[in-house]
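Progress against Task 2.4 (sequence-to-structure conversion) is shown through the following example record, which the project officer requested during the mid-term review.
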Amino acid sequence: MRRIVVSFTALTALMAVAACSDQAQQTGGATGAGYNTGTTAQRPTGGVMSEAERLAQMQREFQTSVGDRVYFGTDSQSLSADAKATLDRQAAFLRRYPTVMLRIEGHADERGTREYNLALGDRRAQSAKEYLMAQGVQGSRLSTSTYGKERPEANGSNEQAWAQNRRAVSVIAQ
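Structure tokens generated for the chain above:
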């Protein structure tokens, strides 16, 4: 129901913006491309982005500017200093965009049983979630899931591949 109300509000706002003929009126005097935290955003070439396009653009910014993944040691869910720095940037991003929700996906390398790696992936996702909550992010904006060893980032049975697969990935979920 909330999405219907938000969509209706966005459509009403879109129609109001479309009625403006002056670009400065449409953007509120702002220049340049980008997206906003509302339900509509301007494309760099003009027009309005769909919700899916807006979320994809936001996810790209999140991945490149903020960092969407943190890595863990073998059989560990402890956060390193680098992981905490990434999660601090994620918390700042979430403060800047108060309607954004994150799904934190826990992963493990191929070693160990399926059940062990699912549990380890869950502990890693929970560790990242708890850190974000300690930084002031509301727990209701965060969800977790685990994939264990089922979705490797890198293929191979060596330390380099295993290190890339021991991770928690934060994905924007609206």
